[in-house]
Design a protein that fits this description.
Layout (H helix, E strand, L loop, with lengths): L2 H9 L13 E4 L3 E6 L2 E6 L12 H16 L6 E10 L2 E4 L12 E7 L7 H6 L7 H15 L12 H16 L5 H30 L3 E3 L9 E4 L2 E4 L7 H4 E3 H14 L3 H15 L8 H21 L3 H20 L8 E5 L11 H7 L2 E4 H8 L19 H20 L4 E4 L5 H14 L3 E7 L2 H14 L8 H10 L5 H4 L2 E5 L6 H11 L2 H11 L1
Parallel strand pairs: 11-13, 11-14, 12-13, 14-15
Antiparallel strand pairs: 1-2, 2-3, 3-6, 4-5, 4-6, 7-10, 8-9
Helix pairs in contact: 4-9, 5-6, 5-10, 6-11, 8-9, 8-10, 9-12, 10-11, 13-14, 14-15
Organism: Thauera linaloolentis (strain DSM 12138 / JCM 21573 / CCUG 41526 / CIP 105981 / IAM 15112 / NBRC 102519 / 47Lol)
Pfam families: AAA_33, APH
Protein name: Aminoglycoside phosphotransferase domain-containing protein
Length: 537
């Protein structure tokens, strides 16, 4: 028995770790042991050098433990408590105090964490059908706020430039090709590789621009369902990558791509769409959509590589299962290269007509990206979406000049989303024909279908909705009955020419989007392919 195994076994003995009299449970990964005793978990890193990580010496393990503590306290300070030295010998260990306080050279180090119920993991909740979709809205805010304060990479620092982005992508293809011999899988691999190389060539200046623009940060690096937990009722990230700066310092779009891909792989693309939209709304990084398919494909290829590596180590049915998993992730990577069906939709209607609440199914079912006037107006003026502006009717944020700036910003964002290959829904009142005409002309210039979703409900329903929303004070909209009355007096009805591009959406009750799909498809034929694609995923 080597010293590391001996130490782990000694720590498993009742009484060595605090609160371990009733026994110790062990969770083992390929790089660490996690010992569960009482209300705590103790992580001991294995003395490995795998190339992409090096825990081969006590000092390297200490540095990794300290990095793990620092990194994960950014998002889950309630879980990550301390780095604890191990003193004595592997056969007779005892825990020390802070690393510098004992006057004795530690033989190893542990990360002490608050123990949590595995049933609180997002992966478990999803498998059990207990993951509430609205939780992804809160998760998106948590992730966006984390990214907003994460350390920023500088050009020339070795992280996030185009070559650094593409190196691990190329490595995936090489390492998979070494381990599989199935002609069909190799064919898919070749097609994905050709697409990835072409996208890299086209996106090279974009990657460098995003680095210069501060979008490459010290992120989580391993943001998937297994590293998400509901803690004290709120979603939290944990287990960030501590062993590889290259994997951790990445584009924020690459960070969230892992979760979106993970949900697609599990057949829950609608949850990925919900998370993506909420994250974009919070951070405003709609330009990140240009690189998102590239990163989604990369994340799927990472999973395909891991499955191929496992398959090469196994025989029989276990090997076949790993190859099937590899095949599934290759198909998912290839799906990111399929032609998109972009369109420009506008959700017009008076306040309270349900433009935001009742358009949510479009985001989840058909991968539409929504841009909200209420949010972007406040962002232009440096306010959070839920902040009260204190502006009077037709003053402050709602002056004619501010409104013009808002619609210009919406047009810019719609242009960016469509150019990235996604359908966009611009959520605004669009009271004036000139406002609607501007977006119709933009759709024409971009060569994509233009659709007017005309949301409407009786006045008494509109009035009650804005009253309730204003009383709650939790929405980006600041409309009340005074604002609604002003809209009624200035609203310009849809003209006959506009009606050709209109799909009426009655929101007296929740609209049946399945029933509305044929009408929408008549105006935007590509929605049918998007619907079929997301059902397949």
């Amino acid at each position: 028995m080597n010293a590391a195994d001996e130490l782990m076994n000694s720590l498993m003995r009742p009484g060595v770790l605090p609160d371990s009299a009733q026994g110790v449970e062990l969770i083992e990964t390929h790089i660490s042991w996690v010992l569960l005793a009482g209300g705590h978990a103790w992580k001991l890193k294995k003395p490995l050098d795998l190339g992409f990580l090096d825990f081969s010496t006590v000092e390297r393990r200490r540095a990794a433990c300290e990095a793990e503590l620092r990194l994960n306290r950014r998002t889950a300070p309630e879980l990550y408590e301390a780095v604890v030295p191990v003193l004595g010998t592997p056969g007779a260990p005892r825990l020390g105090r802070a690393p510098e306080e004992d006057g004795e050279a530690p033989i190893d180090f542990l990360v002490r964490m608050r123990r949590f119920d595995q049933a609180a993991l997002f992966a478990h909740l999803l498998d059990e059908g207990q993951l509430v979709p609205a939780l992804f809205d809160r998760l998106a805010r948590h992730v966006a706020d984390f990214h907003a304060v994460a350390a920023v990479a500088k050009p020339g620092g070795g992280f996030g430039d185009a070559d650094a982005v593409h190196a691990p992508v190329r490595q995936n293809f090489e390492q998979i090709r070494e381990r599989i011999d199935d002609p069909a899988m190799l064919d898919v691999l070749g097609r994905v590789e050709t697409w990835a190389e072409a996208r890299f060539a086209a996106l090279r200046p974009v990657f460098d621009a995003r680095l210069a623009g501060g979008r490459v940060r010290e992120c989580h690096g391993d943001l998937h369902l297994g590293n998400l937990i509901v803690l004290d009722g709120e979603p939290r990230l944990f287990d960030a990558i501590e062993f590889s700066a290259e994997l951790r310092w990445t584009d924020v779009a690459a960070d969230i791509a892992f979760l979106v891909m993970d949900l697609q792989a599990r057949g829950r693309a609608e949850l990925g769409g919900r998370f993506l939209n909420a994250w974009l709304e919070r951070c405003g990084d709609y330009e990140g959509l240009r690189v998102l398919p590239y990163y989604l494909s990369y994340r799927a290829m990472v999973r395909a590589k891991i499955a191929a590596i496992r398959a090469a180590q196994l025989d029989g049915g276990a090997r076949d299962a790993c190859l099937a998993e590899c095949r599934r992730y290759l198909a998912l990577a290839a799906a990111q290269a399929e032609p998109a069906a972009p369109a420009l939709l506008i959700a017009c209607g008076l306040s309270g007509s349900g433009k935001t609440s009742q358009s949510q199914p479009l985001l989840e079912r058909w991968g539409v990206i929504r841009v909200r006037a209420d949010v972007e107006r406040k962002r232009l003026f440096g306010l959070a979406a839920e902040a009260a502006s204190g502006s009077a009717l037709r003053g402050g944020l709602y002056s004619a000049e501010a409104t013009a700036r808002t619609y210009a910003r919406l047009a810019d964002l719609a242009h960016a989303v469509v150019e990235a290959g996604y359908p966009v829904l611009v959520d605004a009142t669009f009271l004036l024909r000139a406002q609607r005409r501007r977006f119709a002309e933009l759709a024409g210039a971009l060569g994509v279908p233009f659709v007017i979703l005309a949301f409407d409900a009786p006045l008494e329903i509109l009035s009650e909705r804005v009253r309730r929303r204003a009383a709650a004070g939790a929405d980006a909209s600041e409309a009340d009955r005074v604002v609604l009355d002003a809209q009624l007096s200035t609203h310009e009805a849809l003209e006959a020419g506009e009606r050709e591009r209109v799909l009426d959406v009655d929101t007296r009750s929740a609209p049946d989007w399945h029933a509305l799909l044929p009408g929408l498809a008549a105006l935007w034929p590509g929605v049918l392919s998007r619907a079929a694609d997301r059902e397949d995923r």
